[in-house]
Amino acid sequence: MSWKEEYKSKLITAEEAASKIKSNDRVWYPPCGSAPVDIIEAITERYKELENVTMLTGLILYPFKYLQGKYKGHINHHTTFMGPYERKMYPEGNVEVTSYQFSQTDWLTYNRIKANVFICEVSPPDEDGNMSYGPLGTFNGFAAADYADLIIVQVNNKTPYVFGGKEAFINVKDVDFIVEKDHEIAELPQPPVTETDKQIASYIVERIEDGSTIQIGLGGVANAVGFFLENHKHLGVHTEMFVDSMVDLAEKGAIDGSQKTLNPGEITCSFGIGSKRLYDFMDRNPSLKTYPISYIADVNNIAKNKKFISINNALMCDLTGQICSESLGFDQFSGTGGQLDFVRGASLSEGGKSFLAFKSTAEKKDGTKVSRITSVLPPGAVITTPRTDVQYVVTEYGIADLKGKSIQERVKAMIGIAHPDFRDQLTKEAKEYRLI
């Protein structure tokens, strides 16, 4: 039987796909724009017939109804990275969180996620029957499919066909059922670049050499860095997340990968999140390839890139350099992700540098301004990057080089980049705690 005949024989509706889910199943689906929306919504409609089904994913960009508290016990949600909808619905009690290093994703897939069902959105098949995992499915799709007993894909004509290694595709012969249903790919709008973002970015960019290989996260600072890097030459990309600012740099010729020492000449990433323009750029682009996140975030692979530059956002930091990037007190805000992997990879790279950036203050609901640099982190705050790994911390007031510094040197450097309104208080507290 040819793959085309096999494809036709496996076609079912989204409702028929949902009927294959049984009580106690563990169902993994890819994050963000690769979630098979129609299958998931059809499963949700069956919730009264189901008991203890667990849906596992991360950073969803759709307001799935099953996140509501009334679905708990029927369809439960487990996330590996909190996104906006998961944060909003968390108080209803049907969202469970696992925070872990992205480099350990394959291990987690086989040993903790252990999903017996894998559902995923894919592109239409190519001439060999291979369907692309699209912008996000390569994250751990190969491992999830390998572990699962049941594989159902949703073919969406609007899913970009993204190149990569063998793990970036799944063949028609390797799936059990196929649903055909089109919908727009979920976008994650980029926040506007503020003057503060530009100021932070300016401190980072002046330390980035031509020919560097970069990793940039989401957010205004990331976009600003992309803007300021447009006059650099021969930049490379090795990143967990391909973002809109990188599209700009590639189209302006700043990114060509010609001096990369691992996978030269290509934009190397695990997934893409952003606008439709970004997805269009990824579609059948031979200069861009996706790989499993366990490969991308592997410290040793990162370190193979000379002059590797890691740029990530943080939520807050204490005076000694302990970085919190994922929680607000005891409340999980996002996830560990690949931050520490890339910080450590950059430290092992020849000429590598890592930057952890944030605005110096935050505004509370009542309008009160608070410092993001504190003498003591609040109870429950998660240490995402230990102070022993931190190199550069950046705010709009400057850059603190903490690598290998004494406690007193660290504290003075951090006070120097705090908002001026809080420096006297931070100095007073540092003396009280005998840090200086």
Could you walk me through the main structural features you see in this protein, from its secondary elements to its overall organization?
The protein is of the alpha/beta class and 436 residues long. It has two domains: 3-180, Glutaconate Coenzyme A-transferase (3-Layer(aba) Sandwich); 195-432, Acetyl-CoA hydrolase/transferase C-terminal domain (Glutaconate Coenzyme A-transferase), CATH 3.40.1080. 28% of the residues lie in helices and 22% in strands. The protein contains 15 helices and 25 strands. The protein has helices at 3-9, 14-18, 37-45, 84-89, 105-113, 141-147, 195-205, 220-228, 244-251, 276-282, 293-296, 299-303, 339-348, 407-416, 420-432; strands at residues 11-12, 26-28, 53-57, 75-79, 95-97, 117-122, 130-132, 150-155, 169-171, 177-180, 213-216, 236-242, 267-272, 288-290, 308-313, 316-318, 323-324, 327-328, 331-332, 353-357, 361-363, 369-371, 373-374, 392-395, 398-401. Strands 1-10-8-6-2-3-4-5 form an eight-stranded parallel beta sheet, with helices on both faces. The mean pLDDT is 96.
